[in-house]
Amino acid sequence: MNKGLILGIIVIAIVWVTVTLALKKQEEQQIQIRRIEMHVQEQDSLITSLVTVNGKLQTTIIQRDSLLHHQKHLIHSYERAMDSLSVIMQYLERSDLSKRYRSR
To answer: How would you label 63-78 residue by residue, b for 16+ Cβ within 10 Å and e otherwise?
Structure first.
């Protein structure tokens, strides 16, 4: 009977140690899982920020391209206006010269 009691105590001690170690291991794994989840949340937040910045950057690039396109049109319109003004000035100069020659 003493041997049975000792054997029972040994079995209970082994089970207790095994369960305690398993619980500690599970707790450590849960801590690691929480750390990984926090890291994933940080990465998600960073990715969201990058996507937002990328969207704003693309919008800015589109706006810049649009402004450059309008600027080219304005420059072309200015050049046409200057050409027209040059033709008008030449006409006025000829007209003025012809009046001078006629008055003589």
So the answer is: eeeeeeeeeeeeeeee
H-only helix segments in 1-104? 2-103
- The whole-model pTM stands at 0.52
Is 1 strand, coil or helix? Answer: coil
pLDDT, tens only, 77-87: 999 999 999 99
Cα separation, 42 vs 48, whole angstroms:
10
CA dist., res. 81 & res. 89, Å (int) = 12
Residue 93 makes CB contacts below 8 A (sequence gap 6+) with none
